[in-house]
């Protein structure tokens, strides 16, 4: 009796659940510490101490009916003002609280903006590999997700194919940098060319094409890598942000959308996003967390921990002969499978108690994603297992 | 450039915003304490002290990467287990954690279950007057909301009309008791007849008709009124619950769905609801709040406060000649407008600095909703203003 369009998704979900249960099964047999689970993007670095301190202060200081009460659908004005000021100081932008809409994480924000924008049959373009849920988010509102194929040399966007795939039906382009699953940061020159193409195509088609930038990993970058702030490169840019990774609060569901004044029909779109927040059932972003993040805009999680993990895992795997672009951000390695069907590779890896996600889940078969937001010990102990796995594959190849 | 189906909703939203701004304008001129704003269902009784204590304990005791980390889409198993046990103790049910899905409030839960159930064109029946957002929730998934007209004598469901409107396309029936906007609690005899009709029609059509019970006001009842627990009367019942009112936490967005084993295709539906939670962008209910409510299942807000408000406002208005069913629950009075077009009445009331919501927003013109979740002083000070309003209308009628 469930909805037809949910049946396939429930079947896929069973596959994910099966993997999860396989992890539990292995942990039951060998002990949790002997299972090398790289399948989940759940931060293992705790939230900064300042988050806890902010929670205590807010609970002590704020009047409960205000602290836990409904806010406007867009969130507390003072929280949005604080975030706008912080962005302006960082990026030289000129946002006000009107440009900020607090959301139930980045996933909530993406649903809100897609609901606000999409008419049935309109297209959203994205670059493979991409976060697996994008397709479902777009389909929720009758939209069609079109992929630009991956450049497996660099995992930067393929701009010629992109230009060719833009059409009068393209309502939005959805990008994610630093990227899940590759960890790649799109370079400024790529962003400039992307913006130039979009400007040109908007004129050619006499349409508006929104660029939606999904940025949960903005602060997770290594070695001083700069992540261009996209509203400065292309006027019709909307930013979706989340504190899930920067403050290690993924379960709390707190983030925001930025809809700049420069965006076409900005005022109407801001109102639509507020309405969408309400009618999709979010109503408002969780209020205590709104107040907490406003007090922690300068804080971030300990990135050096992820950086050490990245270095150790990347060095270890490449020494063993595995091939992978060194990520500049996020907490993922996207490793080339030694056999074309990476699902086979994932299955074999399980025999060594290593859990990874097949790249086909991200629109890029032949690769596997390893989330290195795990303990350093897990990485050190996993490497000898990867060595056995490498022997099985890489000597034979 | 916004989505076509959002344009009307943005226009309606502007009307609500205009009312909100009118309130602010009046407060600016006359002072906030001299504006009698009965328009918002935002609890004014603070969360119980136990909520704050639970928040402190949880923050002190729980490991941050677990406390703030992703949970399964359905929520922490131990939280769901605690809620299942609490329901079983209260209602003699036999739920396990598998039957409980934590949601982003009741609004989030309703969206999740409608996404899980509805195919485009399928119908959802509801009884007028009803919460204004139901239509949008159903439309989000291509469904059609069909109203059963109000029985303005009792505001109990009109069951003959209901039976006549059930059809092979009816996928679900959505009810809300204690009711927003009337405060009426559907009686046990009505529930039994409703269940009997549904059983009969399921057989006649060879379909499954789900009964979705939206219960944010379950605990807000006066004078020992009993609210039947619907899973005991009809097998295909799904309950949507929220802590927004029972613990005065509306901004925190925390509630749950109950999908009992007895429900047709229960296992598939539970999985679909978990998937819907993910792909609609909720991902999981806010984690800190999950932990807090699990420690507060026995707690509730101070209902005596609302009860005094109810009595004073009801007695005051009826003495002035206004007509209204005495509510047994929730924190609303649904008052008959002295003129057929209640919007005119609302406009006149503004001249006396009284803000109310027209009943047509709830599918029941000719009435106005007063939310009495305000300070007692507001009610006492508003009554002389209502007296002036009554003189203008009731003597002339």
UniProtKB/TrEMBL annotation, chains A, B:
Cited InterPro entries: Aminotransferase_I/II_large, NHTrfase_class1_PyrdxlP-BS, PyrdxlP-dep_Trfase, PyrdxlP-dep_Trfase_major, PyrdxlP-dep_Trfase_small
Domain of life: Bacteria
Ranges of residues in domain Aminotransferase class I/classII large: 35-382
EC numbers, comma separated: 2.6.1.-
Keyword Transmembrane in annotation: no
One matching Pfam family: Aminotran_1_2
Transferase is among the record's keywords: yes
Top EC class, one word: transferase
Gene3D superfamilies documented for this protein: Aspartate Aminotransferase, domain 1, Type I PLP-dependent aspartate aminotransferase-like (Major domain)
Positions of transmembrane segments: none
Cofactor annotation: pyridoxal 5'-phosphate
MF term (GO), any: pyridoxal phosphate binding
Keywords: Aminotransferase, Transferase
PANTHER family per UniProt: ASPARTATE AMINOTRANSFERASE YHDR-RELATED (PTHR42691)
Protein family per UniProt: Belongs to the class-I pyridoxal-phosphate-dependent aminotransferase family.
Protein name, UniProt field: Aminotransferase
Taxonomic source organism: Suipraeoptans intestinalis
Source taxonomy: Bacteria, Bacillati, Bacillota, Clostridia, Lachnospirales
């Amino acid at each position: 009796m469930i909805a037809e369009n949910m049946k396939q998704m429930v079947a896929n979900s069973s596959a994910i659940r099966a993997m999860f249960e396989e992890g539990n099964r292995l942990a039951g047999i060998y002990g949790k510490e002997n299972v090398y689970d790289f399948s989940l993007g759940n931060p293992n670095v705790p939230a900064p101490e300042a988050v806890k301190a902010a929670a205590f202060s807010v609970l002590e200081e704020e009047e409960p009916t205000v602290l836990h009460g409904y806010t406007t659908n867009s969130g507390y004005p003072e929280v949005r003002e604080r975030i706008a000021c912080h962005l302006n100081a960082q990026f030289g932008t000129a946002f006000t609280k009107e440009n900020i809409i607090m959301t139930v994480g980045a996933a909530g924000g993406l649903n809100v903006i897609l609901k606000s924008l999409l008419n049935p049959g309109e297209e959203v373009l994205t670059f493979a590999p991409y976060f697996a849920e994008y397709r479902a988010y777009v389909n929720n509102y009758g939209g069609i997700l079109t992929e630009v194929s991956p450049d497996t040399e660099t995992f930067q966007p393929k701009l010629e194919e992109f230009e060719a795939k833009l059409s009068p039906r393209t309502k939005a382009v959805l990008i994610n940098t630093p990227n899940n699953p590759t960890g790649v940061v799109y370079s400024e020159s790529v962003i400039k060319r992307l913006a130039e193409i979009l400007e040109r195509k908007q004129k050619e088609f006499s349409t508006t094409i929104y660029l939606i930038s999904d940025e949960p990993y903005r602060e997770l970058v290594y070695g001083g890598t700069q992540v261009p702030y996209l509203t400065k490169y292309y006027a019709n840019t909307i930013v979706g942000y989340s504190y899930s990774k920067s403050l290690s609060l993924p379960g709390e569901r707190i983030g925001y959308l930025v809809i700049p004044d420069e965006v076409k029909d900005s005022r109407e779109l801001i109102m639509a996003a507020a309405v969408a927040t309400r009618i999709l059932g979010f109503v408002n972003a969780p209020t205590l967390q709104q107040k907490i993040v406003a007090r922690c805009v300068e804080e971030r999680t300990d990135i050096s921990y992820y950086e050490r993990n990245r270095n150790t895992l990347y060095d270890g795997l490449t020494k063993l002969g595995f091939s992978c672009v060194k990520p500049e951000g996020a907490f993922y390695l996207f490793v080339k499978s030694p056999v074309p069907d990476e699902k086979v590779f994932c299955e074999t890896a399980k025999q060594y108690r290593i859990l990874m996600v097949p790249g086909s889940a991200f629109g890029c078969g032949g690769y596997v994603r390893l989330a290195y937001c795990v303990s350093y010990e897990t990485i050190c102990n996993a490497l000898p297992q990867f060595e056995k796995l490498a022997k099985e594959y890489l000597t034979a190849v």
